[in-house]
Amino acid sequence: MKHLKIQVQGIVQGVGFRPFVHRLALQNNLKGYAYNDAQGIIIHIQGNSKDTDIFLEQLKSQAPVLSKIENIEIEEYPMESFNDFQIKESQNGIHQTLISPDIAPCEDCIHEMLDPNNRRYHYPFINCTNCGPRYSIIQDIPYDRKNTTMSDFKLCSQCDKEYHDIQDRRYHAQPNACKECGPKLIYVGNKQDEDELENAINDLKEGKIVAIKGIGGIHLACDANNKQAVLRLRKRKQREAKPFAIMAKDIQTAKELVDISSVEESFLISKERPIVLCKKKAPNSYIELSENKELGIFLPYSPLHILLLERCPVLVMTSANLSDTPVLIDNEEALIKLKDIADSFLLHDRKIENRCDDSLIRIVNDKPYFIRKSRGYAPIVIHTPFDVDGLLALGAHQKGSFALGKNHHVFISPYIGNMETIETMEHFTKALDTYKRLFEITPCQAGCDQHPDYASTLYAQSLDIPITKIYHHHAHMASCMFEHELSGPCFGIIWDGTGLGKDQTIWGAEFLIGDYQDFVRIGSIKPIDLIGNEQAIHEIGRIGLVMSMDANIEQTFFEPTKQEILKKIRIQNSVSATSMGRLFDGLYSILTKKITQDYDGQAPMLLESMVQPTDKKYSLKFYEKEHVRYFDWTPMVKEMIQDTDDIHIKAQKAINTIIDMAIEQVHTLNKEYLPIVLSGGCFQNLQLLQGIYKKLMKENYTVYWHEKVSCNDEGIALGQLAILSQRRK
Ligand code: ZN
Ligand code: ZN
Ligand code: FE
After folding, report:
1. CA angle (73 as vertex; 69, 77 as ends), nearest 5
2. Which ligand minimizes its atom distance to the CA of 154?
3. Which ligand approaches the C-alpha of residue 150 most closely?
4. Which of 266, 340, 544, 548 is the most exposed place for a label (fewest CB within 10 A)?
């Protein structure tokens, strides 16, 4: 006979863990009790040792799908007299543990929803302990129905019975609901049918644009096969070119649009259901959906989506927001703000408490490579050997995010968005308050970007705790190092669009050596003048003009008077940037003579999309100034302009040249073979990422890239937190 106290830490609340423990105990003839505590769940079992052994084995091997066991501690206890096995109520105030993300419907629920004899037939809010909304509906801890937006709905007697029956799949499923007692659809539009869903489906089939409320926000949807509808949506949303994501009914349907590898498929059907960027079947197909060679595809991730997609098998599903503001979550607000965009609305009366956008990934070398990490993953938790307790990192600007530390856990916010607008800032502060409350963290120290004008920096300064300003590219580098638990020194190839450098100019094509304490810049590229500052990011012809001027070749980008004026403005009002993003903008403009881009990052993406394979490249030239080795891109630009090859070959040659430039810099600047980290938004470009990676690996360097957070500015908060924690030591 044995009495064991077992402490399980990890995601074990709200995922059916207690009933699972109860069943295991009964199966193995064990007595005792279990209850939730601050770290997870405490289990006392008493019985013969063979049975306790089996219990322990099954506890690990058969744990519920949504649970995540991080640690188990076992202690032997003196014998007691128990009558049975009981689940005890947790004491108030001590329920703090990890929170599950929102999860796509499980097979059992889908089966019930499609069964005409089931009481939840076609009920779009069906869920159980193994699936359904979680993070998006939680308001406070502990994770109980009264602390979620489901508190608006009183369980009917049948649902209540399921909720309290330990043998039931819905035992303690907090969002449990049915047609009688749960959330209902709301249709606002011109259709007259009694059935809200039917109305929306008919609208979609007619080519209308329908605003559809989902899990973490509202989408604007239209039939992806109806070109006119897609173009209308682009026009109304003023989104000329940025790719749309497509929700496909199932994998088979998705395979008609794109090629899907087995790893891509595993992510598409995963419980997190991110958007996965997949290669189009025909590179020039569906141009109105995406001008790139790829298409973002995802599968239905709520019961409502499944019902809609049954009848409309491919839908454009794009976040419903107005430029640079967060995705809408509120019914009233949506009805007002989307009145000129949506023809009708399919909403519901379950409130979204915590907004999260769809996550976006690419598969690289059979692993996920995040571009946006949000719904399905939020709240993002990274376990670390470093002590990060009480630290807060406020991220950067264009892709805002924050990170909070507690003991050895980093809690990272979902994607927040462009911090330029008041609405985004409100979202940021609200999400931060929620995280502090849910994870019970009172930060005692904060880190932010060095840029004095970032909203996140200003916010940091408004807090009454000590703050540390951290250089943007140092944070990128530290973020990648931290993910891989590297202690440094490392060699960073940090390429992005914009970040303030140590010399107060804009950096973005940097070669750094450093650890968490500090870094030195040892390599970069020849600075590019940005005529009229920020305006050049939109009007990329200005960058093309500057680059061809510096290469001593006269090129026409604008009509003559404007071009002359711009040359004058260059002298009076320009800043210089060593930015890889801008270098790509300029190259694209020179190649295509396009003078504007619709969104930041469009030109580099199109450049990557237009290449045709070749091994050829242009000349490399370097120069040294104040111990920094710069790549001089002027010979490359000159040769490219004079090159008579096809434009697609020229694009590939330019990318080959930049890859080789990186390798050359590594040869010269990293003679000690320090571990190399690749970070910064430019590494969303797979040609750069894989090109540099493959060549360096062949030469026996160790190379790391991001696997847990995005390489773009969304990953900055993690880097800031890493630097804070290591400097504190
Ligand atoms: Zn389920
Ligand atoms: Zn009910
Ligand atoms: Fe950056």
Report:
1. 140
2. 2
3. 2
4. 340
Cis peptide before 452 (omega within 30 of 0): no
Distance from residue 304's CA to the centre of ligand 2 (Å) = 17
Q: How far is the CA of 359 from the centre of ligand 2 (A)?
A: 31
Q: In one letter, which amino acid is 723?
A: I
Nearest ligand to the CA of 713 is 3
Q: Which two tokens stand for residue 88?
A: 């005890």
Judged by its nearest atom, the ligand closest to the C-alpha of residue 66 is 1
Q: State the Cα–Cα distance between residues 338 and 333, nearest whole angstrom.
A: 8
Give the ligand whose atoms come closest to the C-alpha of residue 129: 1
Q: Copy the structure tokens of residue 483.
A: 């993910």
| C-alpha to C-alpha distance for 289 and 319, rounded to whole angstroms | 14
Give residue 238 CA to ligand 3 midpoint distance, Å. Answer: 26
Backbone phi, psi, residue 552, to 5°: 65, 35
Q: Under a CB-based contact definition with an 8 Å cutoff, are residues 642 and 618 in contact?
A: no
CA distance 651 to 465: 49
Cα–Cα distance list, 323 to 238, 240, 419, 654 (Å): 8, 12, 12, 33
What is the CA(159)–ligand 2 centre distance, in A? Answer: 4
10-residue averages of pLDDT along the chain (729 residues): 92 81 93 84 94 95 88 94 87 63 96 98 96 95 90 97 90 94 98 96 98 98 98 95 96 97 98 97 92 96 98 98 93 98 98 98 96 96 92 97 94 96 97 95 98 97 97 98 95 97 97 98 98 94 98 96 97 96 98 94 92 96 98 98 97 98 98 98 96 97 97 98 95
* Closest-approaching ligand to the CA atom of 472: 3
Backbone φ, ψ for residue 6 (5° rounding): -120, 125
β-bridge mates for residue 510, sequence order: 494
C-alpha distance from residue 268 to each of 201, 254, 294, 616 (Å): 24, 10, 15, 37
